[in-house]
Specification:
The protein has helices at 9-16, 18-24; strands at residues 44-48, 54-57, 61-62, 70-71, 80-85, 92-97, 103-108, 119-122, 127-131. Helices cover 11% and strands 30% of the residues. 33% of the residues are buried. A hairpin with a 5-residue loop joins strand 6 and strand 7. By secondary structure, the protein is mainly β. The protein starts with 8 loop residues before the first helix and ends with a strand. The strands form 2 sheets. The chain has a 6-stranded antiparallel beta sheet, with no helix packed on it. It is globular and about 40 Å long. It is built from 2 helices and 9 strands.
């Protein structure tokens, strides 16, 4: 995909720092249960940790007990890019920011009890949160 925001790895690394770079640009994963946004319960907006594009509304966040912040849908279908991921010995669906191509996490069809049936399992390090005023 041709992303609106394009930067070199050295530019991203400099802007993000090592920990965020590993998740956002190298498709890493933070340890479950450690993300600062896991228990965030305030109303607000979740944006891309790299480019600040709008990704998720707090009203779509739910407790999935998976160890990462979970949402049942993005703010708009075109806000995220979904890609087949065959790493780790299975087939999963990777979620990337559609504006800059940064790795956010994965989406699974096991969001039981949600309006969509989906569970967007996101890394806290890949998101920014802005509380509603």
């Amino acid at each position: 995909m041709d992303y609106a925001i394009k930067k070199s790895d050295s530019e991203w690394r400099s802007e993000l720092g090592a920990e965020k770079f590993a998740v956002l640009r190298e498709a890493g994963t933070e340890r479950p249960g450690t993300g600062e946004l896991l228990d965030e319960g305030r109303a607000g907006l979740y944006t891309c940790g790299a480019c600040n594009a709008e990704l998720f509304q707090s009203g779509t966040k739910f407790d999935s007990d998976c160890g990462w912040p979970s949402f049942y849908e993005s703010v708009r279908p075109e806000a995220v890019e979904l890609l087949e991921d065959r790493s780790m010995g299975s087939v999963r669906t990777e979620v990337r920011c559609a504006k800059c191509g940064s790795h956010l996490g994965h989406v699974f069809p096991d969001g039981f009890g949600t309006p969509t049936g989906d569970r967007y399992c996101m890394n806290s390090l890949s998101l920014n949160f802005t509380p509603a005023e």
